[in-house]
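FORM 7B: Structural annotation worksheet

SECTION A. Query
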Amino acid sequence: MAKERILVVDDEADIRELVEYNLAKEGYKVACAANGEEALKKARAGVPDLMVLDLMLPGVDGLEVCRTLKGDPKTQRIPIVMLTAKGEESDIVAGLELGAADYVTKPFSPRVLVARVRAVLRRGAAKPLDESAAITAGGLAIHPGRHEVLVKSKAVDLTATEFRILHFLARRPGWVFTRYQIVDAARGEDAAVTDRSVDVHIVSLRRKLGPSGGKIETVRGVGYRFKDE
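SECTION B. Predicted structure
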C-alpha cells in the first residue's frame, strides 16, 4: 500500500472530505487545510510528498500558495496537483508556469484525481532526467546525441526547432506544458520561436511523425503534452 503523505487544500469541507476519503482508501496518509495560510503552515511544518491544491481559496489564493512554495528551497520540490473550476484556463496556465505538476477541473471524478496523483508521484520517483538518453515510445525513437528521430526504424527529417520541441515534451510524458514553457525550451540560435508559432511547429511535427504524431496531445486552452503510455 502507498505510504506517501498528501496535503489536501480546499475551503469546501465536502470536497476536502471526498478527496481525503478516496486518497486514504488508496493507502495515502492524508492531511487537510481549509485555506492558504493553513496550507503554508502545514507544508513548512512537515513537507508532504504531494499537495492537492484548490486555486480558489479565500485570502491567500492557490496561485499565491504555489508561488510561495516554489520560491522556498524547503518546499519547492513539492509536486502540486491543482483543483480548478471549469473555464479558468488563465489560472491553469499560470499555475503550470509557476511549477504545478498537473491539474484537475471541478467537478471531478475521484478516480481520475487519484489516478493523476498516482501518476505525478510515479514521475517524481523516477530517476533524474538524463538529457542525452534515448527515448522510445511505441514505434517512435528519439536519439538526442545523434539528433535523430526514427518512426518504425525509418529516419524522420525534423528542423532543429521541431526536434527540441519533441524532445522537451517526450522527456516528461503526461506533463502538460504551456506554449510559453515550450517557447523557452525550444528557443535556439537558428530560429525565433513565439507562442503562436508553437502551434505551427506542432502541426508540422504531427504530420512528419505520421501515426506517432498522435502522441503529441493538445490540452485545450493550455498547451501540449506527450502521451503517457
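SECTION C. Observations
Helices lie at 13-25, 36-45, 62-70, 89-98, 110-125, 160-170, 179-186, 195-209. The two ends are 23 Å apart (CA to CA).

SECTION D. Sign-off
Analyst initials: ____
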